Each structure stands twice: as C-alpha cells, then as structure tokens.
Amino acid sequence: MGTIGILGGGPAGYVAAITAAQQGADVILFEQANLGGTCLNEGCMPTKTLLESARRYRDIREADKFGIRVNKEAVSIDWPALLERKNAIVSRLVQGIQYLMKKNKIKIVQGKAAFQSPHVVLAETLDGTVEIKADQFIIATGSEPAALPFAPFDGNWIIDSTQAMSLPSVPPSLVVIGGGVIGCEFASIYSRLGAKVSIIEMAAHILPGEDADIAGILKEQLEKDGVDIYTSAAVKKLDRDKKCALIEQGGNTREIYGAHVLVAIGRKPSVNGIGLENAEVAYEKSGIKVNEKMQTNIPHIYACGDCIGGIQLAHVAFHEGKVAALNASGIEASADYKAVPRCIYTFPEIAATGLTEKQAKEVYGAVRIGEYPFSANGKAMISGEQAGKVKVIIEPEYEEVVGLSICGPHATELVGQGVLMLNGEMTADLLERLIAAHPTVSEAIHEAVLNAQGHPVHV
Fold first, then answer.
1. End-to-end alpha carbon distance in the chain
2. Is residue 186 pLDDT above 70, yes or no?
3. Catalytic (active site) residue 438
4. The pTM is what?
5. 128: how many CB neighbours lie within 10 A of its CB?
6. Buried/exposed code over 201-210 (b: 16+ C-beta within 10 A; e: otherwise)
C-alpha cells in the first residue's frame, strides 16, 4: 500500500491518519501545533466548556424557580478557574489523540509542512528541515478566522474567536460582528456571564442559514439575556480610539461601543503557504477543489475538512477524512452529505438536519410541516426549559421526512433522530407508528410527526 503523508492533525487529518493506518498503510502526520486542530484546541471543545459554565452559573442564580434558596449575591464567576477547567479538558483530549496516534503506529512530524513537488513534502521542525516522500498525500490543513478587510485583528480590541476564549476577564461589554453560529454562541456565553453584548448581522435575521422562525426563538431569548441585536446592518468603521463600531441600518448610522470587538464573520480555508502550486493542486480562495472521493486534480493527492470549503463542521471533517483515507488506501468510498447535523450550542440550543422549510419549498413546492412546542412538553416543563419547538418537514410525493429543525432543550442531542430518519429515508406513516418514551423531550419529535399527519395528541 505504501506511505501516506497527511498535512494537518485536526478532525479531518487525525481521522484520516487512523483510518489509513487501520488499512495497513504507513502513515506520516505533519502538524505544526497541537493535535486536534481548531475544533479541539480553539473551537468546539473549549467554547462548549465555557457554555457549560455559563449555563451552570445561570442555573444556580435561578435555583429559586425549583424551590431552592441561594444567596445570589454570593454566586460569582471565578474566571481564572473557569479558564483552567477549559484548558484542562482540552489538554486531556489532546492527550487522547496522542494516544490514538501511538496506538495506530502513526509517525508524527511536528512542524510546518509544504509541498516541494507532487510527491515530496518539506517540513520545518525544531531539529531542522526534513524532506519526506510519500506515495499518497491527504491535505487537511483546516481553516482560520476571516477578518474584516478594513479592520484586521489586533489581538487586543479587535479579536477573533480564539482570543475571545482567553480574555483576562469577563469584559463589561462585547460587540459581536456576525450573527452566525460562532457569534451567537459567544453572545450566549458572555451575556450570561454578565457582559453587555451587541450582535451586528448583515442578513435580515441572525443564523441566516436556518429558518427565520427558528432563529427568531433564539433572538427572543438572547434579548431576554440583555443582548442587543442589529440585523440588516452593515459595519462601516471600527474606531479603536473611541472603542466603537459605526454601523448603518435602514439608512441611519449608529455607534455601538464595546470593550472588545469579536469579528465572527466566518472562516476561510487555510490553503496558503503549503506549496499547493509546487504540487500542481488546483485551488481557489474558497478552498481546494475535490471530487466526491476527496480526490484533487492530482490523482494521488486528496484533501478534506475545512480546507476544501463546503460545510465547515468537525463531524463533516471526520466523515471526509475517512473517505479520503479509504480512497487513498485503495478502497472506494464517497462523501454523503444528505443528513449532516447542524448544531448550535446557544441558550436554547438549535439543531437541524436536511432541508430547512425554505429550501424544501424551493425543491418540492408544497411541503407538509409538523410542529410541536416545548411549552406543551412535560419534561421541558419540569426542567424549566420550555422555549422553542420541533419542526418536521415532509415532502408531498412519498411523505418522506426531508428536514428536521429543533430549537429547545437538548436539541443537539435530539437531532440524531433526524439524521437516522433522513439516512433511512423514513416516511411519516412509519414514524407515526413508533412508540416514543414518556416523559422525555425526545417525544416532541414524535408529536411533531403526528401533527404533520393531522393526528395531534398533546397539543
């Protein structure tokens, strides 16, 4: 099978490495920083740790709703301890990946790697420059935060998502530019920890990739948490001296002040500086070009994860990394994006898979919608988390479920049911016959299906 070289040890890269090693390949993994990539070190895991601390803080302060009396004035944030916990979790997870590399006999080359030719990579390590040849290569170099063209990151006032997780203290105020997933998650974190947060979003509503009614539920909760939200608004200038963002909204201008400005307008593929020209690999600003096998225009070079653009999610990178490694190992496989779960860890959580209602109507015309509010769900009532709903989308010809959107308690856990529905091409009549556990929040999905069928029970 030969040697497979992998550039990048993030979700796509380390999964590709393990998969290729399991197929019998000799694997060399190049990584210039910590294993785990952005997701583990600077994204998914640390932000969710901060979100959990923010949730626990709010739960304690609202304990009286459950008949538990606490001295609210005595409840406070120990920010250094919170960051220490976050760092400890990240460190333990990194060690777990290091163990997996050792277990699968994967050689790690610590250093920045770049192609010198289609079959040769040059790695700059602490011990000097190393030239390594391989039969196949997989590029998994990830992505990086996108900056505003007129206001680059300065690491002080204008910060990116990585820097937002290591501030010296909870800021008194924070301006978030971008109301997408990253922006809304940080707004949830810092608003619940006591900061005055403002979100500036160019689109007509926050989370423009989801339906307006789902995003609207989150907007209402964020506003209850004290977040100011400006939609259909454009940032015209960031004034470092005045510490304010000048925005234009509806023909009017406004100044929004903040101790920091978090620019969360998206991420761009990391494709520069890795010698793609030397390898003759085709790429654009939007990412490296690949086919459904994750193969580039150079047959023995594959690419996967954020560096190819597309859906920039860790679990998609896992999937693409496995597909790339299998093909590089001589086993035919292709990427399947039919039922990708989209998870947003805000308060309340949002999760969806398949088509949104808007997309489904564009594809199928008339679709059937079934909804169920968590305000009617007993378990949600018990937990005090009644905001939100489940929405099931059913196409008209075969009555197949083509989309599921959830805003509410444990949405990111519940969406797995939707992934199974879509992958199994399940129809509404089949799902109607299933027995849902009671009392659970998961039965809200079954109730939404019953509603779509015209047989609602508990609403």
1. 59
2. yes
3. yes
4. 0.95
5. 8
6. bbbebbbeeb
